[in-house]
Design goal:
Elements: H1 24-31, E1 32-40, E2 46-54, E3 63-70, H2 90-95, E4 98-103, H3 132-146, E5 150-159, H4 161-168, E6 177-183, E7 196-197, E8 200-201, H5 203-213, H6 236-243, H7 260-267, H8 273-277, E9 291-296, H9 303-316, E10 322-327, E11 341-342, E12 345-346, H10 351-369
Parallel strand pairs: 3-4, 3-5, 5-6, 6-9, 9-10
Antiparallel strand pairs: 1-2, 2-4, 7-8, 11-12
């Protein structure tokens, strides 16, 4: 059944309690017990996972899981170091879930090798055939068996690159996954997302982003330290004009072949097998898990990903409860505290707060708690 969620919805009451909680920096520590652990994947690689468990969870008061898998760090690390805010938005944090944040394979404190937008392996023949779907499956399976007082239901979310990891949980999904929200998800990096837009290399954005994200590591780290190179040009247009061909980014001043992802970008300048394998859309077939894809009309990075992830599920998974939320947002702005205007546009209301309270919280509460939609 086709479901389309517009940014304007009527007749739905907000589920969050009216009483304001303590300030977020004390609310998390006052209401959750933090647990840092590693979870072993089927191939033996251990992924660093941070879990926040509600203190009032009991055998008669069980909670669903709400998980984000990220390449951007699950910090702060350590059982006694609490984040000031957990979950996708304050409303869901106040209502409380068992929140899970995981460093994906090969990033920060997790073991293994990180692949750029890990290709999905449809026919896994051994335990060595791993991808983000299998890592999510193994993580969910461990959580269900090892974290007490859970209700057996799992939701996943993520914006941008974490949005890709949310999408990647859908093919070959664990049966306990009940709701997934890919938000501005990286979907096809050559045709429309991040690395290339319609095949045109997104030079300025990638040059800056890979300067920190593309730094190599020799093993698990809490901090990648300095960037690959130092560069702070005052005039960006003039800088790239004088740089010359993009191959000059590999000289000793800049990447100098230190970033394997940057190397791959430059090696694959057509829509070859490398990019085709990183297009997850063909694998979004027969998806049974309810989805809520989110995007912004002013998103310069992953507008393509939101629209085409939704479209692919809609076309290839008939009967799925597939939702699309689009609003007047830049990249990820729907999770900001206040989004009433952008540039010369005044929207007349806080569109991000409306999304968080009226759409996102309802979506996860309905499928995670069986509460009224």
């Amino acid at each position: 059944m086709k479901q389309f969620l517009a940014i304007i919805a009527l007749g739905i009451s907000v589920t969050a309690g009216a009483q304001a909680p303590p300030a977020p920096n004390t609310f998390v520590k006052d209401n959750f017990t933090k647990m840092d652990t590693t979870i072993t994947m089927r191939d033996g690689i251990k992924l660093y996972t941070v879990i926040y468990i509600p203190k009032d969870a009991t055998a008669t008061n069980k909670y669903p899981f709400l998980m984000e898998r990220t390449p951007y760090s699950a910090a702060p690390y350590g059982d006694t170091n609490y984040s000031r805010r957990i979950g996708p938005n304050p409303t869901l944090m106040k209502e409380k879930y068992i929140f899970v944040i995981q460093d994906v394979r090969g990033r920060y404190m997790s073991e293994g090798v990180n692949l750029e937008v890990t290709p999905y392996i449809a026919n896994k023949k051994s335990k060595k055939d791993v991808d983000e779907s299998s890592d999510t499956y193994d993580t969910v399976d461990w959580l269900l068996k090892n974290i007490k007082n859970n209700n057996g239901r799992v939701g996943l979310y993520g914006i941008s690159y974490p949005g890709f990891y949310a999408t990647a949980s859908l093919p070959g999904a664990h049966p306990a996954i009940k709701a997934v929200s890919p938000q501005a998800p990286v979907t096809d990096e050559f045709i429309g997302d991040d690395a290339n837009h319609n095949g045109a290399f997104f030079l300025m954005d990638n040059f800056s982003f890979m300067n920190y994200f593309g730094k190599p590591r020799t093993g698990p780290v809490k901090d990648y330290g300095t960037q690959v190179f130092n560069s702070n040009p005052k005039d960006i247009y003039d800088f790239f004009l004088k740089l010359g061909p993009v191959s000059n980014t590999q000289n000793e001043k800049y990447f100098n072949n230190k970033s394997y992802i940057w190397n791959e970008y430059l090696q694959h300048d057509t829509y070859d097998a490398y990019w085709q394998a990183r297009n997850i859309r063909p694998h979004l077939k027969n998806i049974q898990i309810p989805t809520m894809v989110v995007g912004g009309w002013f998103d310069a990075e992953d507008l393509f990903g939101a629209l085409n992830t939704y479209s692919s599920i809609e076309k290839q998974s008939p009967g799925n409860r597939n939702h699309l939320v689009m609003g007047p947002w830049t990249h990820g702005a729907w999770e900001s505290a206040d989004w009433k205007a952008f540039a010369s546009h005044d929207f007349g209301s806080n569109t991000s707060k409306y999304f968080q309270d009226t759409l996102e919280a309802r979506f996860f509460n309905f499928y995670g708690r069986n509460s009224r939609y």
